[in-house]
Amino acid sequence: MMTEREVLVNQLDGEFKHRIAERMGNRDFMHCLACGSCSASCPVRKLEEKYNPRRIIRMAILGMKEEVYRSEFVWMCSYHSTCLKRCPQGVNIGAVADVVSRMAEEAKRQKVEPADVIEAEELDRGFKRRVIAEVAEVGRCFTCGSCTAVCPEQLFDPTKDPRRFIRLVNLGLRDEALADEFKDICATHYRCLSRCPQGVQISQIMSAIKELAIEDGYSYPESLVELERGEAGTMKTV
């Protein structure tokens, strides 16, 4: 009986690593010793342990093409190059992730489920430009997750994710961004700004998005209206 960790030899693609090397223009990633220095220093892994660069490189070398294509790591790698600085073999994992993600797109093996696929016509390129006109730093975000790691709102509700919100803006997902409650509950602690390596002013972005939401006719989220009504009802008068 097979376990989840067993892989049949006939399921491996022996040419997969060579196609990656050809795209990269070198075979450096095949020199990986699986020492784990990359995983130990990966900032994405600090947020989510399942993102394991050592494991991804190992699977690529073994020819586990489908598993690599389905891995979220190749899409979430933020290209800090911390792994490259620590790697004794000089393996550029960020470059591997970039090449593999492109190969996955070409093979139509995106990590998202078909129901979650976003068509190009759904993206509003002008929306990002409108936000940049108010807060230029929004385009600097490289989704490292430092903001999410220190956001107080995340402690109460994991769905309130500043990294995800900024990503919506940069992708041009206007409707999703304007309808997201996170813009209305941001408490402007500025912890995100203090940790952001790019100096992205997330609180200012939230303010700009709220103004755009009003301009575009979006109403204040009903769930927050009900919450405020409830809080007002419990306040004591002196």
Automatic annotation (TrEMBL):
GO terms for cellular component: plasma membrane. Keywords: Iron, Iron-sulfur, Metal-binding. It comes from the Bacteria. Coiled coil: none annotated. Pfam families: Fer4_17, Fer4_8. InterPro entries: 4Fe4S_Fe-S-bd (IPR017896), 4Fe4S_Fe_S_CS (IPR017900), HdrC_iron-sulfur_subunit (IPR051460), Helical_ferredxn (IPR009051). One of its GO terms (molecular function) is iron-sulfur cluster binding. Transmembrane segments: none annotated. Residues 23-52, 131-161 form the 4Fe-4S ferredoxin-type domain. This is 4Fe-4S ferredoxin-type domain-containing protein. It comes from candidate division WOR-3 bacterium.
